[in-house]
Amino acid sequence: MMLKARPKKIGIEASSLCQLSCPSCPNTSGAIHPVIGRGFLKADDFRKIIDGNPWISGIELSNYGEIFLNPHLPEMIEYAFMRRVDVSADNGVNLNDVKESVLKAVVRYRFRSMSCSIDGACNETYRIYRRGGNFDAVLGNIEKLNYYKAKFSSPWPRLRWQFVAFGHNEHEIPLARKLAGELNMSFHLKLSWDPHFSPVKDREMIRNETGAATREEYRQLHGVDYKQSLCRKLWDQPQINWDGRILGCPRNFWAEFGGNAFKDGLLHSINSERIRYARKMLRGKKGAVPDIPCSTCDIYLTMQQNKTWLVKQPLLSPSRVLGGLRGVSGPRCPRHADG
User: Which of 114, 179, 223, 322 sits most deeply, having the most CB atoms within 10 A of its CB?
Assistant: First the structure.
């Protein structure tokens, strides 16, 4: 009998809509729309997943859209809290437009963690990439979160300032890191996924911070893709679209694996024949075939070229592979969520 993946955590996109127009984002270009579509996760579907799969202990809600545009978000995080399921938004939120009542609910119902995409330390710099956003509004919402965390004597949610390095904002990295500390946030500097939009100028400084000046340089140095760990999510945190369709990983927006977690059942859907085949591909046990989304992914193509297949043990994150280790496996993603 074939063993099935039964992950403790899954990803379900709460909203595929986003109010910003970041230049390199496939949501802005409309590239995600044919497969991902435009919509919100329904509260009934969210409850169905939790009630029908009691082993689930965590749900990641963010991916290509902005979770706070979903009007049902407070209802869903309250239900997850009641059922002792942790919710997170570690792929990323822009945190521009949020009602204070929602921020209060995020703290009250112990939303676990949140990565805030803030690529600058002032409004002028921030808006160069986060078009349509407002730096002051974002920091104001973070301050409100901190107010309610203090009021409820809660450490949740843990907050992370995610800063994508560009040529136009690299001079503000020290100030952004300082502001993050003042706001009780961790700070994460990330390499851009788009080599053409505002490439970094001080390559040595970025290299000292992240181990490489660009994602391509990272691949050349280490033989693996900068975001290789995303492939592991086919086992550990399979990605489900807002309407229940199976995407497999957070990077995939060009094809679905078939099945629907809301209609066909979660375990059945995330262990379909095509996903099982994809898992074998990623371990180098099977060759690429056209109807598997992974076959055209840059991450898989790098693995295929360098024979750096996934192994059974958990993958190392980019910060752990800086010593030039080879033979570990796996990914990159195109938007703020990808990382």
Answer: 114
